[in-house]
Amino acid sequence: MTKRIGIIGCGKIAQVRHIPELSEHPGAEIAGYYNPTRYRAEQMASVYGGRVYDDIGSMLGDPSVDAVVVALANNVHADVSIRAMNAGKDVLCEKPMAVTLEECEAMMAAREATGRILLIAQNQRLTPAHRQARDMIASGAIGRPLTFRTAFGHSGPETWSVNPGKGTWFFSKEHAAMGVMADLGVHKADLISFLLDRRITGVEAMLSTLDKTGPDDSPISVEDNAICILRMEGGIFGTMTVSWTYYGQEDNSTIIYGSEGILRIYDDPAHAIRLIRKDGGMEDFDVEHIQTNDNQTRSGIADAFITALITRDGGVLDAGRILPSMKAVFAAVRSSEEGRFIDIF
Q1: Cα–Cα distance between 36 and 157 in angstroms, integer?
Q2: What residues does 241 pair with on adjacent strands?
Q3: 3-class DSSP state for residue 13?
Q4: CA torsion sign, 250 to 291 to 196 to 317?
Q5: CA 176 from centroid of its chain's CA atoms
Q6: If you placed Cys at 53, which of 17, 34, 131, 149 could pair as Cys (CB 3.0 to 4.6 Å)?
Q7: Among 161, 136, 143, 150, which Cα is nearest to 287's?
Q8: Which fold has domain 3-122+301-315?
């Protein structure tokens, strides 16, 4: 049975990912769109079909809508997702899950109370290279994982968002709450937990605004760089660097160092995965190429969402699986503010 999906928020990520991928999915039909700026919803309806809703309440009150995608600014993720679940709709919420731990926990409580599906769009869990790397690590390809370094950096959201330029909402503490940690840090904290199948148990971090300025040329109110030391279950530890000031080639690499070798993921533009064995032997796995802001390919998010709606199982994007990495993100912010290591329980 085809699932009818409502799109709440028609910004760049909805335009390049959620809407086109759902429109092409044989198990999905886009019922309609809501956007604070109505003309964007009208643009999407003219291209992909479906109606334009005057407000969120109208969409949530439509019994023909089975589920919604929440792709608004960070500060309303929790409120809109909770409203949707209370209205009987299943939800796919863009990352970050929410802007405080209390909001995340409220979303989880609403999910439990309503029995709805709640997925978080942590798409890096779905890439073929990351799935294969996780399997390789689990099978002992590099022995026992010991340390790691993971990075995600590009030249900033002002070059990519639906309203490009220094006025982007990503630079607003009111709307984004966090800067590069909410944009890129949530991806990499979640990814390292996914790859190693271990929870982050402690963080020490430094967050800073080094270069980005707003429309008045004063420093933006959120961080544009962050460097974190992450401690994992089992004593594994490593570094996570996220940045909006990589003015050149985007970096989305992860390297895992084990007792029997090294696994380099998206570290070489020519090879998705490189396995370097302890004896020096190497093997490349060219399963695919990572998405970048300038090279958007199918993310698998639509497939995961429709599958979850049918099976009633959130799978790897289930909010309960994402919550531990959100705790690590909030702990990193706190660590930078307080200047100390933060244990995560």
Answers
A1: 20
A2: 151, 227
A3: helix
A4: positive
A5: 14
A6: 34
A7: 136
A8: Rossmann fold (3.40.50)
Please enumerate in sequence order all residues whose Cβ is within 8 A of that of 41, keeping only pairs 6 or more positions apart, or say none.
Answer: 7, 10, 32, 33, 34, 35, 52, 53
Q: How many CB atoms lie within 10 A of CB 282?
A: 12
Closest by CA position to 209, among listed 239, 175, 173: 173
Phi-psi region of 159 (alpha: psi -120 to 50; beta: other; left: phi over 0): alpha
Asked whether 22 and 30 are in contact (CB, 8 A), the reply is yes
The phi-psi region of residue 204 (left if phi > 0; otherwise alpha if psi is between -120 and 50; otherwise beta) is beta
Beta strands in the chain (DSSP E): 3-8, 28-34, 51-52, 67-70, 90-93, 118-120, 145-153, 200-208, 225-232, 237-243, 254-258, 261-268, 271-277, 282-285, 342-343
Answer yes or no: are the C-beta atoms of 82 and 61 closer than 8 Å.
no
CATH 3.30.360.10 at 124-295+323-343, yes or no? yes
What is the reported pLDDT for 37? 96
**Inter-CA distances, 289 with 252, 269, 270, Å:** 11, 8, 8
Which one, of 228, 239, 230, lies nearest residue 199 by Cα? Answer: 230
Residue 66 structure tokens: 């089975």
**Distances, alpha carbon 44 to alpha carbons 51, 92, 315, in Å:** 9, 18, 29
Smallest Cα–Cα separation from 258: which of 240, 242, 234?
A: 234
The pLDDT tens digits for 10-30 are 999 999 999 999 999 999 999
Give me the residues paired with residue 207 across strands. 226
Give pLDDT tens digits for 214-233.
999 999 999 999 999 999 99
Closest CA to 71 of 110, 40, 35: 35
In angstroms, the CA 47 to CA 137 distance is 43
Please report, for the chain, the start and end positions of each structural domain, with discontinuous segments joined by +: 3-122+301-315, 124-295+323-343
